[in-house]
Design goal:
Oligomer: heterodimer
Strand content of chain A: over 45%
Structural class of chain B: mainly beta
Shape of chain A: globular
Number of helices of chain A: 0
Structural class of chain A: mainly beta
Shape of chain B: globular
Low-confidence stretches of chain A: none
Largest sheet of chain B: 7 strands, mixed
Largest interface: A-B, 26 and 26 residues
Number of strands of chain A: 11
Radius of gyration of chain B: 13 Å
Order of helices and strands of chain B: EEEEEEEEEEE
Order of helices and strands of chain A: EEEEEEEEEEE
Low-confidence stretches of chain B: none
Distance between the termini of chain B: 36 Å
Largest sheet of chain A: 6 strands, mixed
Number of strands of chain B: 11
Mean pLDDT of chain A: 92
Number of helices of chain B: 0
Helix content of chain A: under 10%
């Protein structure tokens, strides 16, 4: 059974701190790993990772994938209150006749002023 | 472009009633998806459609039917709603062959009493 596990499930930090969110996975047909941000509405896309060791960056957010150890991390530096959200990790398992994303339960991140 | 749109935004049903959730995308994507999201859970795939005229079951298809009406529209039907189907439903779309990210609609919050 395909599985995506995120940790921690919730995290409270102060503005300006750096956070690291974790995602490990077990899927039979790995195509890519995606990170989404969800703020009480539709998930919005952050990153897609397909190759090991290549860091993706967007401003204060960055992410990296390790396909050998089957995990990814999402880093947020100099956190702001606007970073408060649920961060979802998903694995694209499309191929071999199947399609879709398998999601983890998400990390609920709260940034206190 | 409106992206992915869903109707209705909110719905309350009584047990045993039926309804159809509508989804449309204007990005010329070939693949469309229906997910449900329950409290403390990530999104779970209900059904997907890789192209017009084809539909396939996802992780949690029981109690649902779908129709891919044309390339733009993908509907989800509950024939006899049950309290266990109380959830937030998200529709998504993408170009399957390029393996790019899925784009999500704003969601429908459904309560079954």
């Amino acid at each position: 059974e395909d599985k995506v596990v995120q940790s921690p499930l919730s995290l409270v930090v102060h503005e300006g701190d750096t956070v690291t969110l974790n995602c490990s996975y077990e899927v039979t047909n790995f195509r890519s790993l995606l990170w989404y941000k969800q703020e009480k509405k539709a998930p919005t896309f952050l990153f897609m990772l397909t190759s090991s060791g290549i860091e993706k960056k967007s401003g204060r957010l960055s992410s990296i994938l390790d396909k050998k150890e089957l995990f990814s991390i999402l880093n947020i530096t100099a956190t702001q209150t606007g970073d408060s959200a649920v961060y979802l990790c998903a694995v694209d398992f499309s191929g071999g006749g199947a399609d879709g994303l398998t999601f983890g339960k998400g990390t609920h991140l709260i940034i206190q002023p | 472009n409106a992206g992915v749109t869903q109707t209705p935004k909110f719905q309350v049903l009584k047990t045993g009633q039926s309804m159809t959730l509508q989804c449309a995308q204007d990005m010329n994507h070939n693949s469309m998806y229906w997910y449900r999201q329950d409290p403390g859970m990530g999104l779970r795939l209900i059904y997907y459609s890789a192209s017009e005229g084809t539909t396939d079951k996802g992780e949690v298809p029981n109690g649902y039917n779908v129709s891919r009406l044309n390339k733009r529209e993908f509907s989800l039907r509950l024939e006899s709603a049950a309290p266990s189907q109380t959830s937030v439903y998200f529709c998504a779309s993408r170009y399957l062959l390029t393996g790019k990210e899925q784009f999500f609609g704003p969601g429908t919050r459904l309560t079954v009493l």
